[in-house]
Amino acid sequence: VSYNQACEGRLPVKLPCEVYCHTLTDDSILAPELREKGYHTMTLFGLDAPWNLFARDNHAMRKLAEKKFIEGINQWLEEPLENCLAVARDGSLCIESKSPVDIEDALGMYHGNIFQDAPTFPFAETKKQAGRWGVETEYENVFLCGSSALRGGAVSGIPGHNAAMKVLETIKKTPNPPSP
After folding, report:
1. Residues 70 and 122 in one domain
2. Residues 33 and 56 both lie in one domain
3. What is the pLDDT of residues 15-73, one digit of tens each?
4. Over the Cα atoms of the chain, what is R_g?
5. Per-residue pLDDT tens for 135-175?
6. What domain range is 173 assigned to?
7. Backbone dihedral region for residue 55 (phi beyond 0: left; psi -120 to 50: alpha; all else: beta)
8. CA dist 159 → 18, 45, 56, 115, 154 (Å)
9. Which of 8, 35, 105, 169 gives a 20 to 30 Å CA spacing to 22?
10. How many CB atoms within 10 Å of residue 135?
11. How far is C-alpha 21 from the chain's CA centre?
């Protein structure tokens, strides 16, 4: 439902997301005084919120998406998330939201897609893809090793493995490969 709503140019009524807390297992990203006080970070990775929804009025849409994500989380909690968040010196809640537009501006990732493209299944889908690593490009000896490679995506590590295998395969086929 959310995907279809996003395709229709609307911010989905219910926004799917993934939430994780890095500092539960590794608090090294926190300042020592925050660790001592028991602070943690929480990351919410929102889905079905494409760049074009934010392009016209990024600030307003980012705030609306933030509000909807918090509402979505709150439906599962005993007390509102806002009651559990740290408060900054100016009295605002310690929340940082980044839209696809913000990510594109800051990191240069096309349309703010941190995965560069939709993840794909880990098997060849066409006869042309069969027997290939899925990292090939139109340029000789240029291979994809990020999320936009076939048979992988997100943080699976599959594209990196497959790109390394393709490099090794290419070196073996080279008549006089350079020595490392």
Report:
1. no
2. yes
3. 988 888 989 999 999 999 999 999 999 998 888 889 999 999 999 999 999 999 999 99
4. 21
5. 998 899 999 887 778 877 667 788 889 999 999 999 998 88
6. 116-180
7. alpha
8. 22, 21, 34, 12, 9
9. 105
10. 25
11. 15
Domain boundary among 73, 94, 112: 112
Give 107's contacts (C-beta < 8 A, 6+ positions apart).
Answer: none
Whether residue 48 is found in the same domain as residue 92: yes
CB of 10 closer than 8 Å to CB of 52 = no
Total count of domains within the chain: 2
The count of residues in the chain is 180
Residues 61-118 have pLDDT tens digits of: 999 999 999 999 999 999 999 999 999 999 999 999 999 999 999 998 888 888 777 6
